[in-house]
């Protein structure tokens, strides 16, 4: 790869990192102000809310850490904080007593559903702001293009 290509790749990575940082900071402010949640807490509740009782329907702590892109120890601390707030509960895996599962409580589901519109609005606002910056506009468009299209009702 040529030096010019390396420079373009580095610039692209910097732009992607900047977009991520801007979006995360905007969502963080909105979630914290309205619901007392961080972006990481919202993400963890959101991921765990998608669990089901079928095969592979529950995350073990290491899978959860991979999914929310945190270290296993950071994930465990986050789960503990949310459990102390009554938003999650942990229990032993019925098939393997060494495994621990985590479920969202009714209170956690209620907070997640209340926070979801705030999250989605903040995300749209952050993407709109990014679209006004030439270096971020193509990335913001790519993020929008990733959203699944819904069939007409």
UniProtKB/TrEMBL annotation:
<protein>
    <submittedName>
        <fullName>DNA-binding transcriptional regulator, MarR family</fullName>
    </submittedName>
</protein>
<dbReference type="InterPro" id="IPR039422">
    <property type="entry name" value="MarR/SlyA-like"/>
</dbReference>
<keyword id="KW-0238">DNA-binding</keyword>
<dbReference type="InterPro" id="IPR036388">
    <property type="entry name" value="WH-like_DNA-bd_sf"/>
</dbReference>
<dbReference type="InterPro" id="IPR000835">
    <property type="entry name" value="HTH_MarR-typ"/>
</dbReference>
<dbReference type="GO" id="GO:0006950">
    <property type="term" value="P:response to stress"/>
</dbReference>
<dbReference type="GO" id="GO:0003677">
    <property type="term" value="F:DNA binding"/>
</dbReference>
<feature type="domain" description="HTH marR-type">
    <location>
        <begin position="1"/>
        <end position="148"/>
    </location>
</feature>
<dbReference type="InterPro" id="IPR036390">
    <property type="entry name" value="WH_DNA-bd_sf"/>
</dbReference>
<dbReference type="Pfam" id="PF12802">
    <property type="entry name" value="MarR_2"/>
</dbReference>
<dbReference type="GO" id="GO:0003700">
    <property type="term" value="F:DNA-binding transcription factor activity"/>
</dbReference>
């Amino acid at each position: 790869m040529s030096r010019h290509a390396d420079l373009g790749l580095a610039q692209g990575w910097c732009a992607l990192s900047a977009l991520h940082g801007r979006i995360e900071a905007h969502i963080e402010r909105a979630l914290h102000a309205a619901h007392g949640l961080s972006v990481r807490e919202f993400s963890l509740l959101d991921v765990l809310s998608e669990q089901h009782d079928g095969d592979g329907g529950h995350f073990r702590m290491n899978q959860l850490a991979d999914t929310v892109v945190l270290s296993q120890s950071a994930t465990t601390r986050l789960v503990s904080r949310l459990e102390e707030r009554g938003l999650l509960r942990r229990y032993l895996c019925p098939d393997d007593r060494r495994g621990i599962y985590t479920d969202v409580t009714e209170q956690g589901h209620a907070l997640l559903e209340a926070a979801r519109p705030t999250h989605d609005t903040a995300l749209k606002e952050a993407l709109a702001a990014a679209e006004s910056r030439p270096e971020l506009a193509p990335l913001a468009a790519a993020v929008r293009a990733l959203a699944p299209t819904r069939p007409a009702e």
